């Protein structure tokens, strides 16, 4: 019995020693914090964390199987560094901003017209009436939902609009992405070369983001997504701050055009809901406005 206890204690001690805590901050080259950047262990794809709003992070690493950290954030060039070169208690990572390669689009001002991609009159009232829980998405740490939209004309995207409900904590920050449509019809390349972090004030309101400077053409088909960047990874017993994005059935004629993934552990899949044994299309409450030539 004494030998068994000794072996177990030795194993426990070895496990504790192998697990190392790394702390640090991610900034740009001018030492301005990069909020909600992602720190990931390349050899352990589900071992990743978000930085906080000031760029600080803490991550636990098993040094026996982890060799490389990657540091990335929308709008910045990814960096990869050997873990062995880093001081666990004092890490400062500087990221370079990406340079946009989007070609400039010029429209004749005298011939332009404003229009909407999607539907600005969508609501979640009918869902609230029949199924309150279905009328909102309360994502977990690392979740991302993306709505697919395509404009009828070629043009320039002006604004994207995402609806935040009054539930949970509307002031919680989340990240907005705009993706191209990939060859597999899933979210593809990131089209906005900026880290777009937003939040609501009271809830039951539209978040409006000016994206006109990115020269994005919605006529090719785009995805507007919301990413849950706040919270605590792997702490089910501790409530995490979260934001509740609205869901709607007003896009039902287009079917299910919303996709979900978790950045840390799952790939894109279509969002589906079963009601009385039948599949009911529900989609994220989002749309966009754009300018095109008549």
Which terms summarize this structure?
294 residues, mainly beta, Immunoglobulin-like, Jelly Rolls, 2 domains, 7-stranded antiparallel β-sheet, 23 strands, disordered N terminus
User: Which structural class is indicated by helix and strand composition?
Assistant: mainly beta
Strand elements, count: 23
**How many DSSP H or I helices?**
2
- The span between the termini is 85 Å
Rg of Cα set: 22 Å
Query: Strand content of the residues, in percent?
Result: 35-45%
CATH topology of the largest domain: Jelly Rolls
Which word captures the global form?
A: globular
The overall pLDDT, averaged over residues, is 87
Oligomer: single chain
Low-confidence stretches: 1-17, 234-238
Helix-strand sequence:
HEEEEEEEEHEEEEEEEEEEEEEEE
What is the helix fraction of residues, given as a range? under 10%
- Given this structure, which CATH class of the largest domain is correct? Mainly Beta
CATH architecture classification name of the largest domain: Sandwich
Give a quick account of the main beta sheet: strands, pairing sense, barrel closure.
Answer: 7 strands, antiparallel
Number of domains: 2
């Amino acid at each position: 019995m004494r030998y068994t206890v000794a072996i177990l204690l030795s194993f426990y001690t070895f496990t504790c020693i192998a697990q190392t805590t790394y702390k640090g901050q991610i900034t740009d080259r001018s030492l301005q914090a990069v909020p909600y950047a992602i720190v990931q262990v390349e050899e352990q794809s589900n071992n990743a964390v978000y930085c906080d709003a000031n760029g600080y992070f803490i991550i636990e690493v098993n040094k026996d199987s982890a060799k490389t950290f990657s540091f990335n954030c929308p709008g910045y060039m990814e960096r990869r560094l050997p873990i062995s070169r880093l001081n666990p208690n004092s890490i400062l990572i500087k990221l370079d901003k990406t340079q946009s390669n989007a070609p400039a689009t010029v429209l004749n001002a005298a011939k332009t017209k404003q229009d909407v991609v999607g539907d600005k009159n969508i609501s979640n009232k009918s869902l609230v009436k029949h199924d309150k829980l279905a009328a909102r998405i309360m994502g977990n740490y690392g979740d991302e939902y993306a709505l697919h939209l395509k404009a009828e004309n070629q043009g320039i995207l002006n604004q994207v609009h995402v609806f935040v409900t009054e539930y949970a904590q509307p002031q919680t920050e989340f990240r907005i992405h705009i993706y191209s449509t990939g060859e597999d019809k899933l979210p593809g390349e990131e089209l906005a070369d900026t880290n777009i972090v937003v939040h609501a004030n009271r809830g039951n309101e539209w978040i409006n983001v000016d994206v006109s400077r990115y020269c994005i053409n919605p006529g090719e088909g785009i995805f507007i997504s919301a990413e849950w960047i706040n919270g605590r990874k792997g702490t089910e017993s501790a409530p995490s701050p979260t934001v509740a994005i609205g869901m709607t059935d007003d896009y039902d004629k287009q079917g299910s055009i919303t996709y979900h993934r978790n950045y840390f552990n799952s790939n894109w899949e279509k969002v589906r809901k079963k009601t009385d044994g039948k599949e009911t299309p529900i989609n994220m409450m989002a749309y966009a406005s754009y300018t095109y030539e008549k």
